[in-house]
Amino acid sequence: MSRVSYVNGRYYPHSRVSVHVEDRGYQFADGVYEVILIKNRYLVDEEPHLDRLNRSLQSLEIAWPMKQASLKQVIKEIINKNKLKDGIVYIQITRGVAKRDHGFPKKSKPTLVITARPLSVPNLNTNNKGAKVITIPDIRWRRCDIKSVSLLPNVLGKQAARDQGAQEAWQFDEEGLVTEGTSTNAWMLDTDNNLITRYLDEAILSGVTRLTIMDIARKEGIKLVERPFTVDEAKKSKEAFFTSSTSFLTPVVQIDDVIIGNGAPGLLTTKLLASYLRYLDSPKSNILIN
Ligand code: PDD
Fold it and tell me: Would the CB of 210 count as within 6 Å of ligand 1?
């Protein structure tokens, strides 16, 4: 099946789609994006993703390229054209095309790009061995709450992880506190069975999966604490995991050279993953693509 992508009002074969060389996203990383999971043809948590897109656009003073309702239609269309059952949709909005000059152009039309591709989602029977994470200093800017396409430190961090046989890198700030992964939010379970994830501030992205897992944890009566934790604490944790729209809830079994728990996904982690996979299969909170 050949992929179809959308740029500024038109659908193109993916292999032939392009944007202008003076697009500010290309030259300055002057843009924002979203990644939304598609499960069983449902768009998972569409509203919180669009809310966050709105916040990112507002923070950078980039205008909406179209009304939200029209954007939802285009997203649905692209999913249909790509005949996706399980997958992801990628939405990118930049400040648009203008003669290269750092300040905002007086006039520019935002560029809207939407792509989609298949992604297999685990099920309750998938054998999950868990992941290794490494820890690295957080060298990013101070507005990581904005989902900007400026991702170079994240790219370098992820590659450092892969070079060391790990799946993710957890970044830590000057005080040794874990901020987040390069493309995921970080979690740990302490010895008193408190489930801990960093509170929201400008140091991390407000992950939509993070919010959903928090909701599930509360409903299941798990003690949830939103606070930063150190790399040392994480290494002494009973269990750990990370979350995102594309990694779902991934158990962590090793941090740097330290094995977490008994080296297998923890009990609570496994329970939360099962609940999240059930949530993905429940149409309640998701939007059906017609
Ligand atoms: N990344 N933190 C960072 C830095 C991220 O880039 C992401 C998502 C998350 C988790 O957010 P959510 O649960 O809404 O996916 C946290 C996407 C998947 C990406 O860049 O591909």
Answer: yes
Q: Under a CB-based contact definition with an 8 Å cutoff, are residues 32 and 147 in contact? A: yes
The pLDDT value given to residue 124: 86
For range 57-63, the mean pLDDT: 98
Using the mean position of ligand 1's atoms as its centre, give its distance from the Cα of residue 99 in Å: 31
The mean per-residue pLDDT over the stretch 103-131 comes to 95
Who wins on pLDDT, 290 or 36? 36
Residues marked as catalytic = 147
pLDDT over 70 percentage in the chain: 97
Pocket of ligand 1 contains residue 205 by CB under 6 Å: yes
pLDDT tens for each residue of 208-222: 999 999 999 999 999
Q: Is the dihedral of CA 262, 125, 161, 37 positive or negative?
A: negative
Secondary structure of the chain: what % helix, strand, coil (to 5)? Answer: 30, 30, 40
pLDDT of residue 48: 97
Which secondary structure element, helix H or strand E, spans residue 61, and what is its range?
A: none
Q: Pocket of ligand 1, candidates 117, 185, 208: which has the most ligand atoms within 8 Å of its Cβ, to mutate?
A: 185
Task: Tell me if 266 CB under 6 Å of ligand 1.
Answer: no
**Mutation test of ligand 1: which of 205, 206, 216 has the most ligand atoms closer than 8 Å to its C-beta?**
205
Whether 180 and 235 have beta carbons less than 8 Å apart is answered as no
CB 134 within 8 A of CB 146: no
User: Ligand 1 centre from 106 Cα, in Å?
Assistant: 31
